Amino acid sequence: MRVHITYTGGTIGMVDSPRGLVPGADLQGWLASLLKGTPLEHVVTVTPLVPLIDSSNATPLSWQAIVDDLRAHAADNPEAAFVVLHGTDTMAYTSAALSYALTDLTVPVVITGSQLPLRVLGSDAAANVTGALRAATSGRVDGVSLFFGHRLLAGNRATKSSSWAFTGFESPNTAPLAITGAPWQWAAPTPTGIGWRNAAPYARHDVIVVDLTPGITAARLEALLTPLPDAVILRAFGVGNIPSQEPGLPDIVEQVVTAGTAVIVTSQCHEAEVLLGRYEAGDALARSGAVGSRDMTLEAAYAKVQFLLSQGLRGGELARWMGRSIAGELRE
């Protein structure tokens, strides 16, 4: 089996500079040394995207550049497996975005990176890259997954949980797909969703994420949403509660929905399922026309909104799709 690696940048290939870490390591030379003497020694190809970036600079257009590279190489090598090397800061956003755009691709895609550059003594780069390669060539996974810190996670169920720990990602609302060991421990396959045929390319849309805090006023929320964005992700408390007794605050949400902008409610909790109306403090949101994100991570919800907007959906139609599983991103 051939393996193609799409290299986007990130800490894994960075070197010191007067202004901090920047892309610049000889990743291909390091990879050749890492795979020497293994079955993958002569079957791995690498495409470095131009320019290589710190993933903090990623946009939906960056996601599309990865999609384009994966599709081009999958067309030439329909039996290949794929690995994406990516910075950790927005890796979970990218892995979710790839999962929606590639539901028709019949090859495994595993995204990974590292907390330390590859040339640093004690780096987690080698373990993560070899783990991702093993997962991609295992014949046990489909779709998009994320390998990090000895665990393989569903790509649209992962979230970055630590900026320093080698187990830097978690899958708070579903179990890992696999845990490394001798042998690896594999979980049962997870539902994959209904897919999306002929997905249009990602474009950049105005989506705002607003964290509610104790004491936020209706005037402040209205200011944050003026002019109206293409969609709003409202990070509420618990299972989707807001300061419902704050004068005028629920009315602002209703006005936004009435104006044709979808409002998606997620939770600030690491583990949560949004259930609008379970409490009186969330019932106002349910009545306003906002919709809950179920048990999606913030990253999965944000990437899904960008995906749906790129498919031409707006307002209520977009909101209805948020509760349907496209690529296994939520529990139905």
Structure commentary:
The chain contains 9 helices and 16 strands. The model has no long low-confidence stretch (mean pLDDT 96). The longest helix has 17 residues. The chain has 332 residues and is α/β, with parallel strands linked by helices. An 8-stranded mixed β-sheet has the order 4-1-5-6-7-8-11-12, sandwiched between helices. The chain folds into 2 domains: 184 residues, L-asparaginase, N-terminal domain (Rossmann fold, 3-Layer(aba) Sandwich); 115 residues, Rossmann fold.
Keywords:
single chain; 332 residues; alpha/beta; Rossmann fold; 2 domains; 4-stranded parallel beta sheet; 29% helix
Fourth-tier CATH superfamily name of the largest domain: L-asparaginase, N-terminal domain
* Terminal-residue CA separation: 35 Å
Give the strand order of the largest sheet, numbering strands 1, 2, ... along the chain.
Answer: 4-1-5-6-7-8-11-12
- The CATH class of the largest domain: Alpha Beta
Helix content class? 25-40%
The mean pLDDT is 96
Query: What structural category do the secondary elements indicate?
Result: alpha/beta
What low-confidence regions span 5 or more consecutive residues with pLDDT below 50? Answer: none
If classified by CATH, what would the architecture of the largest domain be? 3-Layer(aba) Sandwich
Q: Strand-and-helix sequence, N→C? A: EEEHEHEHEHEEEEEEEHEHEHEHH
Largest sheet: 8 strands, mixed
Q: Which radius of gyration do the C-alpha atoms yield?
A: 20 Å
CATH topology annotation of the largest domain: Rossmann fold
Q: Tell me the total number of β-strands.
A: 16
Number of domains: 2
